[in-house]
Amino acid sequence: MEKNRVHFIGICGSAMAPIAVELKNIGFIVTGSDKGFFPPISTYLKNNNMQIQIGYKKEHIQSNIDFIVLGNAVGEKNIEFIEAKKRNIPILSYPEVLQKYLIKKDSIVVVGEYGKTTITSFLSFIFSKLNLDPSYMFGGVSLDMDKSVRITNSKYSIVEGDEYNASPTDKLSKFMYYDPKYLILTSLLWDHVDLFPQESDYINSFKSLVEKLPNNGVLFINEDDSSTQKIYPIDNIKIIKYSVKNDKSDYYGKIILYKHGYIEFVINGQYNFETQLIGDHNISNLTAGLSLCLYLGLDYKKLFLAVKEFRGAKRRLEIRYRRENLIVIDDFAHSPYKIKASIDAVRKSFPEYNIISVFEPHSISSRDKKTIQWYKGIFNSSDKVIVTDIYRKNSLSEYTRLNSEDIVNVVKSDVQNTIYSSNISLIESIESSYKGKDIILFMSSGSFQGMMDKYIDSL
Hey, is 201 helix, strand or coil? Predict the structure, then answer.
């Protein structure tokens, strides 16, 4: 039987490339184009023997292609998109591809403003360790697994559910395609202000997802974040509450020992666990995942061993460098809750260190004037804060964009030792901040224009 052919427009996207490779692994003939190929994605695609085409050309769209996958960064004026429309070739977003080939009968979806990648990669690791052979997809790079996307014949799929639009031509949130039976909701803190101008728009996207749960579906909800209350009222859906603060919750995770390198915690006073992750927020993340595991009746002894082994995802409080009196941590934090949770976690784990928080306003929400008050009170556990250049400053109008100095002025009311540093001067600004026993905590969804890696390489 002839194999299906699929072409990816924008194959170098961080979500697109792993899906393309996995479709190839299960038997598709896959090609892909992009305007440029750069490491690490280019290396990843090359190592997986992918057929890649540099630049967008209508000749790349052949009549024998069964369907097109359209990247979220590709516009409707793209020449390959236009050619595919002319040839009446089906065009899918990657969430639609997941729905068709990866999502299973027992679909587990993790949503919310924070914790998605950690919880999803955790559940994928746990289910794999327990030989449940799940299909899965999560953002970022796991420290424990060699794939971020996998398609199997298991009845389980585990997917990170993003509320962002599915594609340039489809404004539905991506998670609307993942058909959850089990849904984990961590939070409903307003984000993506470019797509959801009003908070109600943001909340309604999640309500639409909850309404898709089947009659035998289960919603696992974080009781510790008051924003999740905005999902109510909910009719005819089983709700399981998890918490690290309320011992009356269905699943209550309590820290019993907090040390350098690991945390011991217990769920419902009877299930003890140890983890290499740091931070109260990560105990909440693990409690969310373990609530589902325990609800499904998975073997506790096997869970204990898997939790102890789990290392998490790259760029989630990842220690990139360590020597006596100096630790460098790389974290993906880019929103208020994530920033505060990360700094608090480092302070709790390393109370004797001088913490220098280095923040790059990178996400669209973090660069918008509407969010300026989000910065109030979130850096408090830092000894010094360095705010760097606004990412792609000129992509927003001067009427809507924040300046680094605006953020500095707000943060200064909480942490007096707050400064602005250009990325060019960043290494010098960091080195002049040393006190003798220091942690440099980089926080961004970007890379400080390469200066973070340059600093680490200089050590």
Answer: helix
Give the DSSP H or E segment for 17: helix 16-25
Give Cβ neighbours of residue 363 (< 8 Å, ≥ 6 apart): 334, 335, 445
DSSP annotation of 239 reads E
Question: Domain containing 9: what range?
Answer: 5-94
- Asked if residue 260 lies in contact with residue 350, where contact means CB atoms within 8 angstroms, the answer is yes
What is the tens place of the pLDDT at every residue in 157-209? 999 999 988 888 888 999 999 999 999 999 998 877 777 888 899 999 999 99
pTM: 0.83
d(CA 442, CA 362): 12
Backbone phi and psi for residue 351, each to the nearest 5 degrees, phi listed first? -65, -25
The mean of the pLDDT values for the chain is: 91
Number of domains comprising the chain: 3
Q: Is residue 186 a contact partner of residue 119, using CB atoms and an 8 Å limit?
A: yes
| pLDDT score of 397 | 61
Do 134 and 79 belong to one domain? no
Q: What is d(CA 270, CA 275) in angstroms, rounded to the nearest whole number?
A: 16
The domain that contains 275 carries what CATH number? 3.40.1190.10
**What average pLDDT does this structure show over 22-28?**
95
